[in-house]
């Protein structure tokens, strides 16, 4: 295919293009983009994925500093940094995402979901993705800022402004036009200015307060964190990590929950089995399988990119320095050598069998694996449990066009359901365990 055609298909129909290339010429394959001439080498064989994810960071660092979202995240963002600076920020950020802490977020997740559900129109179609996005934004703000999040209306507006679809397009255009690292101007620049003003103000207020030890929100934990040399984070570093968590931590999870319901309404037996498990109140094995299967078959981030600094042997191929080698999350999660009928939504495949590290990679891998993976999985489960405990989703008759499933559409760096996960909700009948 001419590079121009590959570029247009990559922008408009990335999953179609990946499926097509996986069939012929087959894995691994190279995509070439015009006019830059940039090439991506896509891999999806678990052994190749393992080689890339476990290669030392000085050989295969992340190429996310070239991502269209990098300028908004800032130069100290853990997503943007590489090498020892990346490890420093990552170690500072990890504690709030560990085991015990997770439980504290559970109440916030259930409460935010219930509050939003109270306004849903029953029996009429709605775009679920808009609501899940509002819920996860509320949750991440509460997790990051604690109760102060309640008076952060302007912050919410600034973030929503940043994430508006037109702005995502503007962001992509910005990334194509200029070298990365420059701060966006125009509507995105204005939204970023508003976001920064609120964040710096809050950092200043907290530093002055001196009650950090009693607080458990992420900002307080980060303000108290010290690296191996006992050095604390600067205001600029804090700003970049907070913006990173706010942006990386809500759209992704919201889309995954929307995809879960999009799949469930088209698989009534699966939905009924899930509702039965919820009603029985006896564990969450099937729910876990549903979440794992959704993340497998509809991964919201389709690829991750590593930029080789040295030669690397991947399978039979020796890739030269300068190669952008790309574990394709989308293709790896559907590798027919690993999964039977890989396009089918069948949570049963994960009953009694946990996903494998290098053939189920919705959260990427190696030392760059998503910091919020456990948080996101907990949030998905609790949001689904709360919704399905009270309401039952159906496919609205108007959605016949999407009877077999909504296509994926790009939104900034994620893949979202093209119609916004259209669904109707009805109240569930009596006989449920929670009354
Ligand atoms: C279903 C939801 C989510 C998905 C599918 C997802 C996916 C990803 C992926 C694919 C990466 C890149 C990994 C790599 O390069 O190997 C990543 C990185 C990251 N994610 Fe997530 N993510 C989700 C939710 C979250 C949440 C809730 C947070 C935080 C609250 C978060 C914070 C981050 C951070 C900080 C990184 C950068 C890690 C690093 O570079 O060291 N993500 N995520």
Cα separation of the termini: 58 Å
**Number of helix segments?**
17
Cα radius of gyration in angstroms: 22 Å
Number of strands: 11
Order of helices and strands: HHEEHHHHEHHHHHHHHHEEEEHHEEEE
Q: Choose one word for the global shape.
A: globular
The chain-level structural class is alpha+beta
Task: List its salient traits.
binds protoporphyrin IX containing FE, 3-stranded antiparallel β-sheet, alpha+beta, 9% strand, 435 residues, globular
Written account of the structure:
A hairpin with a 2-residue loop joins strand 9 (about 410) and strand 10. Helix content is about 50%, strand content about 10%. By secondary structure, the chain is α+β, with helices and mostly antiparallel strands. The chain binds protoporphyrin IX containing FE. The site of protoporphyrin IX containing FE has 26 residues, from helix 12, helix 13 and helix 17.
Q: In short, what is this structure?
A:
The protein is α+β, with helices and mostly antiparallel strands. It has 17 helices and eleven strands. It is 49% helix and 9% strand.
